[in-house]
Amino acid sequence: MTKSFNNLLLPALCLLLSAFCLSPAYAQVESVESTAPTHYLWVSHGRIEGHLALRYSPAGAFSPDSSMLAVAGQDKVVLMAVREGGIRKVLKPRITDITDLNIQSANFLAMNQLLLLGNGVISAKTKGGGRSTPLLAFLWDAVEDRLSQDVEAVGGGGGYGPILYFPHIRSVVLYKASNFDLWDPRSRRMGRLTIPDLTQAPNVFAFSPDGHWLLLAQIAMSSNPDPVVVEAKQRRFVDSLRGHEGTVLDVSFSRDSTKVATACEDGKVRIFSAPEWKLLRTLTGHHGPVHWAEFSPDGKWLVSAGEDKTARVWSVEDGKLQQTLEDSKDPLLTVSFSPDGESIAASSEKTVFLWQRMAGGP
Question: How much is the pTM?
Fold first, then answer.
């Protein structure tokens, strides 16, 4: 960060670490029922040019009430009406003294407030004109189509690993030199989590929604593909998720923090228990690397997105494939359920697909 980065705020850090100390309410309880889950049919409900977050969960692209989906497209954001499957509104963000704005993702913080992440070029009429900006973070009023907070430069100075937004903890996270800096875009406060034994940068990482755990994958200089488990309060490695036969491309927690899904280059999705870190299910069916996997809000379903241009819906209870969604002509990079679990959105580099759930099937 620029000005925020140089003054880490102790209240934010205390709040963050207090969350790490909480015990998960259902830490050792399997979220399964005695009967098989209801079967559903996922029906195509529209597509639109643009993209969702391509390097982290697109769950934040859904509005809190699941009625809208924010789709980023170069210098604009399209608000898609989820139930109708059409366009509700087109936002055209502008930042003073910045040209060629390229919006990388749009995330709802509230019904009428978006967190936009992107970059651009400094206007020629200002100091440093013609240079590209670092990643910019700013809040945008979706009703009045205007900037609602000062623009913040993220990761100025360089040297950072991936800069990711985590919708479930509502924080932008930056990694550099054993430190994870968590920035709250609403309060503009920063907290820091230092892992002393982490001497190489992870290219993939994920925080559990309850703040207890941190998973690290694609750690530089490591030949082991298995993600490493960090206990956040103690700031130490405690275990690993074993059994991967290729590079892990994504890791994600269930909303109650009791399960983890990994998407792997070996074409498989694996489900592990937390905090036991035992392999529960191996889901096979994708042809080629799986780029993303994410649980439904109730934990009963899992959706995955792959290089084979499909999104696949699985039953978490028995690992069976529920449905294959084949609308895309390009590899799907990210996918997520809506907050109410009734919709799925998936994104390739240039197109967003939407499906809605209907009762049906055997």
Answer: 0.87
